[in-house]
Amino acid sequence: MQHELNQGQTGLAGMWSVRSRLETALATCWQAAIVHPALPNVPDLQSQIALRRVDAPMGVVYSSAIAPRLAANLGIPAEDLAIRLAQSWPASTADMADWADSPLRVVQKHLVQVHLGDRLLAAWLQQFTRPAECQPPKPFPEPEADLAIWNSAPLTHVQRSPGRFQDERLQDERPQAQFLQDKLPQDQCFEMQAAHARCCNLLALAERVGLVRFEVSGAIEGELAWPMSMPWLTAEGTLRTQAPAEQRLIGHLLDSVDALGSIQHGSAIALAQSLSRCVYDFDASCRIFGDVAVHQLELAQARLGLVRAAQQTLRWLLERPLQVAAPPSL
């Protein structure tokens, strides 16, 4: 199991990407089908899968155009390739508990789509309750550090060469002029920092009223002591957070973690902005306290789990690729 969890890890230390793991599962499915033989051998197959998350009325769906991409070279109709892959999926995933409730279907005759099962999503979301999974691996200024202080702080371990700089702490090397140009405008930065601060405030309030408890009181960056496992699933095994704003937030969290393995500065800005706006939408649409906390405690805790996931991801985006502070309050 630990070996499986290590597959598809991203820049968030220890956090695994659903897209990467699903691409591995699809490649395994294809390779297993070769034995029968239902599908031909394809060198470097996993790079051909190219999954992307697509909008769906309910749940999370990943889609791949691998069949039309390979059809011409293999001399097999795309529709046949897609059907063969779909037929091989149940047998290939029979001993893979993670994918047991994630069906693969063929749509538009040649696209393969996997609808993620709720148990898989719950396991993925649960990772955010452990701080070691998302903490930046290198030191940064304290979260309350002012943005101006962060931007003007002297770099450590700097090696200079003509027109370039390298900061070993940040593992970043870009032309110096581009680095200065890439700094975020204050209004964009504030929107993202405010979303992170709102998540921190919600988590702190939740601890004060007894909805959650951290190992060290008030240390919202620490590990959750209670509940040790968030109640993501209902008694029937379905995901508890099914409201549209909850589903949008989960989708953007998936997109963010999927992209972190090879993230660029520009895409990090777009991801952080989209995730911040999802946080605002979620905050306005999904109540946590009051009647919900009294009469639907497990729903309130699951929503707090989403807040925690958003806070961890926003903090990583702000502090690592964007290189600005992620303050707990403004």
Describe the structure.
The protein has helices at 2-6, 18-34, 46-49, 66-74, 78-92, 118-126, 147-152, 176-182, 186-208, 244-259, 265-285, 291-295, 297-319, and strands spanning 52-54, 61-64, 104-107, 111-115, 158-161, 164-167, 172-175, 213-214, 224-226. It has 330 residues and is of the alpha+beta class. The protein has two domains: 2-116, Gyrase A, domain 2 (2-Layer Sandwich), CATH 3.30.1360; 136-319, no CATH class. The strands form three sheets. It has a four-stranded antiparallel beta sheet with strand order 1-2-4-3. The chain has a three-stranded antiparallel beta sheet with strand order 5-6-7. The chain has a two-stranded antiparallel sheet with strand order 8-9. A hairpin with a 2-residue loop joins strand 5 (158-161) and strand 6. The longest helix is centred in the middle third of the chain and has 23 residues, at 186-208. It starts with a helix and ends in an 11-residue tail after the last helix.
Overview features:
single chain; alpha+beta; Gyrase A, domain 2; 2 domains; three-stranded antiparallel beta sheet; globular; disordered N terminus
- The total of beta strands comes to 9
Low-confidence stretches: 1-11, 132-181
> Residue share in helices?
40-55%
Provide the structure class. alpha+beta
Q: If helices are DSSP runs of H or I spanning 4 or more residues, what is the number of helices? A: 13
* SSE run: HHHEEHHEEHHEEEHHEEHHHH
The pLDDT mean sits at 80
Radius of gyration: 22 Å
Largest sheet, strands/sense/barrel: 4 strands, antiparallel
Distance between the termini: 41 Å
Share of β-strand residues: 5-15%
Strand order of the largest sheet: 1-2-4-3
Give the overall shape, derived from the CA principal axes. globular
Q: How many domains would you count in the coordinates?
A: 2
